[in-house]
Amino acid sequence: MKFNFESSGLHKGKKLFIADQINYGYEQQEYLWKENINLQIVSGERIAIQGPNGSGKTTLIKLILGTLEPKTGQLFRATGKSVYIDQNYALINADLNVYEQAQLFNAASLHEHQIKTNLNRYLFTKNDWDKSCAVLSGGERMRLMLCRLSLSNQAPDMIVLDEPTNNLDIRNIEILTEVIKDYQGTLLVVSHDIVFLEQINIDRAFQL
User: Fold this and answer.
1) Low-confidence residues of the chain, pLDDT below 70?
2) 156 CB contacts (<8 Å, ≥6 apart)?
Protein backbone atom coordinates (compact mmCIF):
# COMPACT_ATOMS: atom_id res chain seq x y z
CA MET A 1 0.00 0.00 0.00
CA LYS A 2 1.91 3.02 -1.27
CA PHE A 3 1.23 6.69 -1.84
CA ASN A 4 0.42 7.23 -5.50
CA PHE A 5 1.57 10.84 -5.76
CA GLU A 6 4.72 12.68 -6.72
CA SER A 7 7.26 13.61 -4.10
CA SER A 8 7.14 17.03 -2.44
CA GLY A 9 8.86 20.05 -3.94
CA LEU A 10 11.33 20.69 -1.10
CA HIS A 11 14.76 19.17 -1.62
CA LYS A 12 16.25 16.99 1.09
CA GLY A 13 18.67 18.92 3.26
CA LYS A 14 16.73 22.20 3.07
CA LYS A 15 16.09 23.77 6.48
CA LEU A 16 12.35 23.74 7.16
CA PHE A 17 12.31 25.07 10.71
CA ILE A 18 14.75 26.83 13.01
CA ALA A 19 13.89 27.68 16.62
CA ASP A 20 16.33 29.94 18.45
CA GLN A 21 15.76 30.18 22.20
CA ILE A 22 11.97 29.97 21.90
CA ASN A 23 9.48 29.54 24.74
CA TYR A 24 5.74 29.79 25.20
CA GLY A 25 3.30 30.54 28.03
CA TYR A 26 -0.44 30.08 28.46
CA GLU A 27 -2.54 32.81 30.15
CA GLN A 28 -0.80 33.80 33.42
CA GLN A 29 1.97 31.23 32.92
CA GLU A 30 5.30 32.93 32.33
CA TYR A 31 7.01 30.13 30.42
CA LEU A 32 6.01 26.57 29.58
CA TRP A 33 9.55 25.17 29.43
CA LYS A 34 12.23 25.63 32.08
CA GLU A 35 14.82 25.99 29.34
CA ASN A 36 14.31 27.75 26.03
CA ILE A 37 14.15 25.48 22.99
CA ASN A 38 16.67 25.35 20.17
CA LEU A 39 15.66 23.06 17.32
CA GLN A 40 16.37 22.67 13.62
CA ILE A 41 14.35 20.50 11.25
CA VAL A 42 15.81 19.62 7.87
CA SER A 43 13.74 18.42 4.92
CA GLY A 44 13.59 14.64 4.79
CA GLU A 45 14.25 14.08 8.49
CA ARG A 46 12.13 11.71 10.57
CA ILE A 47 11.92 13.03 14.13
CA ALA A 48 10.17 11.74 17.24
CA ILE A 49 9.04 14.36 19.76
CA GLN A 50 8.90 12.84 23.23
CA GLY A 51 8.23 13.89 26.80
CA PRO A 52 5.86 13.22 29.71
CA ASN A 53 2.24 14.36 29.69
CA GLY A 54 2.05 18.12 30.11
CA SER A 55 5.56 18.72 28.80
CA GLY A 56 4.29 20.78 25.86
CA LYS A 57 4.62 18.35 22.94
CA THR A 58 1.44 19.56 21.22
CA THR A 59 2.40 23.19 21.88
CA LEU A 60 5.75 22.62 20.17
CA ILE A 61 3.94 21.07 17.19
CA LYS A 62 1.70 24.14 16.94
CA LEU A 63 4.75 26.40 17.02
CA ILE A 64 6.36 24.36 14.26
CA LEU A 65 3.21 24.50 12.13
CA GLY A 66 2.64 28.22 12.75
CA THR A 67 -0.70 28.02 14.58
CA LEU A 68 1.06 29.53 17.63
CA GLU A 69 3.83 32.09 17.90
CA PRO A 70 6.52 31.99 20.62
CA LYS A 71 6.47 34.28 23.63
CA THR A 72 10.22 34.71 23.37
CA GLY A 73 12.97 33.79 20.90
CA GLN A 74 12.96 33.68 17.11
CA LEU A 75 11.49 31.26 14.56
CA PHE A 76 12.13 30.55 10.91
CA ARG A 77 9.63 28.46 8.92
CA ALA A 78 10.15 27.57 5.27
CA THR A 79 7.16 27.84 2.95
CA GLY A 80 5.62 24.46 2.31
CA LYS A 81 2.60 22.22 2.75
CA SER A 82 2.13 20.41 6.06
CA VAL A 83 -0.52 17.94 7.20
CA TYR A 84 -1.24 17.54 10.91
CA ILE A 85 -3.00 14.31 11.88
CA ASP A 86 -4.14 14.58 15.47
CA GLN A 87 -5.44 11.83 17.74
CA ASN A 88 -9.07 12.65 16.87
CA TYR A 89 -8.51 12.96 13.10
CA ALA A 90 -10.10 16.42 13.16
CA LEU A 91 -9.56 16.84 9.41
CA ILE A 92 -12.27 14.23 8.82
CA ASN A 93 -15.64 15.96 8.34
CA ALA A 94 -18.26 14.06 10.38
CA ASP A 95 -21.06 15.48 8.19
CA LEU A 96 -19.85 13.62 5.10
CA ASN A 97 -19.91 9.97 4.17
CA VAL A 98 -16.76 8.03 3.28
CA TYR A 99 -16.99 8.59 -0.48
CA GLU A 100 -17.84 12.29 -0.10
CA GLN A 101 -14.84 12.74 2.20
CA ALA A 102 -12.54 11.15 -0.37
CA GLN A 103 -14.05 13.22 -3.20
CA LEU A 104 -13.53 16.42 -1.19
CA PHE A 105 -9.75 15.93 -1.33
CA ASN A 106 -9.58 14.70 -4.92
CA ALA A 107 -6.88 17.21 -5.85
CA ALA A 108 -5.65 14.96 -8.66
CA SER A 109 -9.10 15.14 -10.39
CA LEU A 110 -9.46 11.36 -10.41
CA HIS A 111 -12.59 9.79 -11.87
CA GLU A 112 -15.18 8.21 -9.59
CA HIS A 113 -14.00 4.66 -10.25
CA GLN A 114 -10.41 5.68 -9.43
CA ILE A 115 -11.50 7.20 -6.12
CA LYS A 116 -13.40 4.03 -5.26
CA THR A 117 -10.40 1.91 -6.24
CA ASN A 118 -8.30 3.97 -3.82
CA LEU A 119 -10.90 3.52 -1.09
CA ASN A 120 -10.76 -0.23 -1.65
CA ARG A 121 -6.98 -0.14 -1.25
CA TYR A 122 -7.53 1.30 2.20
CA LEU A 123 -10.10 -1.42 3.04
CA PHE A 124 -13.24 0.64 2.34
CA THR A 125 -15.42 -1.65 0.24
CA LYS A 126 -18.65 -0.83 -1.61
CA ASN A 127 -20.58 -1.38 1.63
CA ASP A 128 -18.57 1.38 3.32
CA TRP A 129 -18.79 4.16 0.73
CA ASP A 130 -22.11 5.53 2.04
CA LYS A 131 -21.14 5.15 5.72
CA SER A 132 -21.20 8.38 7.73
CA CYS A 133 -17.76 9.53 8.85
CA ALA A 134 -19.34 10.28 12.24
CA VAL A 135 -19.57 6.55 13.05
CA LEU A 136 -16.09 5.54 11.89
CA SER A 137 -13.75 3.91 14.38
CA GLY A 138 -10.31 5.32 15.10
CA GLY A 139 -8.73 2.81 12.74
CA GLU A 140 -11.18 3.64 9.96
CA ARG A 141 -10.58 7.37 10.41
CA MET A 142 -6.83 6.79 10.22
CA ARG A 143 -7.20 4.77 6.99
CA LEU A 144 -9.48 7.43 5.49
CA MET A 145 -6.87 10.09 6.30
CA LEU A 146 -4.22 8.04 4.52
CA CYS A 147 -6.56 7.55 1.58
CA ARG A 148 -7.14 11.30 1.53
CA LEU A 149 -3.38 11.88 1.28
CA SER A 150 -3.12 9.40 -1.58
CA LEU A 151 -5.71 11.37 -3.57
CA SER A 152 -3.45 14.42 -3.70
CA ASN A 153 -1.33 15.04 -6.77
CA GLN A 154 1.66 15.98 -4.59
CA ALA A 155 2.91 14.77 -1.24
CA PRO A 156 2.90 17.25 1.64
CA ASP A 157 6.34 18.55 2.54
CA MET A 158 5.77 17.48 6.14
CA ILE A 159 3.43 15.08 7.93
CA VAL A 160 2.91 15.45 11.68
CA LEU A 161 1.45 12.48 13.58
CA ASP A 162 0.23 13.03 17.15
CA GLU A 163 0.15 9.71 19.08
CA PRO A 164 -0.84 7.85 15.89
CA THR A 165 -0.97 4.31 17.32
CA ASN A 166 -3.28 5.15 20.24
CA ASN A 167 -6.50 3.12 20.03
CA LEU A 168 -5.44 1.30 16.85
CA ASP A 169 -5.51 -2.48 16.53
CA ILE A 170 -2.54 -4.42 15.17
CA ARG A 171 -3.85 -4.54 11.59
CA ASN A 172 -4.37 -0.78 11.40
CA ILE A 173 -0.95 -0.10 12.94
CA GLU A 174 0.56 -2.33 10.25
CA ILE A 175 -1.22 -0.35 7.52
CA LEU A 176 -0.10 2.97 9.00
CA THR A 177 3.47 1.71 9.31
CA GLU A 178 3.57 0.48 5.72
CA VAL A 179 2.33 3.78 4.30
CA ILE A 180 4.50 6.04 6.47
CA LYS A 181 7.63 4.04 5.65
CA ASP A 182 6.98 4.82 1.98
CA TYR A 183 6.58 8.56 2.55
CA GLN A 184 9.60 10.55 1.32
CA GLY A 185 9.01 13.92 3.00
CA THR A 186 9.68 15.24 6.49
CA LEU A 187 8.02 13.34 9.33
CA LEU A 188 7.37 14.49 12.90
CA VAL A 189 5.87 11.95 15.28
CA VAL A 190 4.68 12.44 18.85
CA SER A 191 4.82 8.90 20.22
CA HIS A 192 6.25 6.64 22.91
CA ASP A 193 5.60 3.51 20.86
CA ILE A 194 9.20 2.33 20.50
CA VAL A 195 8.38 -0.51 18.11
CA PHE A 196 6.42 1.78 15.79
CA LEU A 197 9.18 4.41 15.83
CA GLU A 198 11.78 1.80 14.93
CA GLN A 199 9.65 0.42 12.12
CA ILE A 200 9.13 3.82 10.47
CA ASN A 201 12.88 4.52 10.62
CA ILE A 202 12.96 7.53 12.93
CA ASP A 203 16.30 9.38 12.61
CA ARG A 204 16.39 11.09 15.99
CA ALA A 205 14.30 11.98 19.03
CA PHE A 206 13.77 15.45 20.52
CA GLN A 207 13.09 15.17 24.25
CA LEU A 208 11.05 17.72 26.19
Assistant:
1) 1-13, 153
2) 8, 80, 81, 82, 83, 149, 185
